[in-house]
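Summary for the funding panel

The consortium committed to producing paired sequence-structure records for every protein in the target list. Below we show the first two records in order, beginning with the earlier of the two.
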Amino acid sequence: MLGDEATRTLDTVHELELADDLFERLSATHDRYHPQAYAFVLAALEYSQLRRPARGHIGGGELAWACRDLARDQFGLTAATVLSHWGVHSTRDLGRIVYQLIDAGLLISQPQDRIEDFDGVFEFTEAFEREYPWSGVHRNGGKG
């Protein structure tokens, strides 16, 4: 069962589906990412805002972590597979999507923002496989 944050985020994703035409055009223009990848990054931005005490600017690293958390919440063990299907294989890909959304006028950057802020924030293999939060499994060999 999804938590309140994930449920609100899913509602946001459904609202963003109304923008499918725009995402289709972005995908066709850049020919690298599935249209749902754009909707997902925007949903992760909102997901991150909901977890803060006040809305405000979100930097590249924070957004990348929000994408990881939302992917885990929304897709569970299949998160890496879903993101890969959408063409997203690294945090740099998340940055490219953000900057394509900026170029399309859907997001606004701050002067200090750089695409390099997304470089190497985390490794997908670590985030979605080795560090996956398995419930009921203890990392100390099952003791404790």
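The next record, for a separate protein in the list, is shown here:
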Amino acid sequence: MKKILMLLVFMAMFCFGTSIQQAEQECNDKNYDSCDALGVVYHYGHGETKLNYEKAAKYYKKACDGEFYQSCLSLAILYDRGQGVEQNYEKSAKYYKKACDSNRYVYPCYRLGELYGDGQGVEQDISRAKKYYKKGCDLDPNRARNGKCVE
């Protein structure tokens, strides 16, 4: 939902005269909202801006480094899927952890639990897997899925 909202915000920026170049300048000036918005635009494509996973990863990383945690989640997904970057579960785990540790997002906690459970990108550790599943459940018990919630 946040991605759709960010895309709508970015589209509105264009309607009021903000260009990719302006957004890039804002991003370079450490406006991490703009970095994330650029990541979204390149991740999904918009208007004449073609989908470009490599650029999306670049902007998501910059925003993530600036503690814009939604971008950490988006970057983790790109590494998880090998979109625009070489598939790398170790890096996806790193960025899922950063997003999960922000205590704002459920999905990265679940996905981190799966990575620990399967030993993908991290050493297999069932105890840690349960810890991250539980954290996801604690963040939003209404969205708990797949029976991953533990007592």
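Regarding this second record: Residues 89-141 form one domain. The chain has two domains: 1-87, 89-141.
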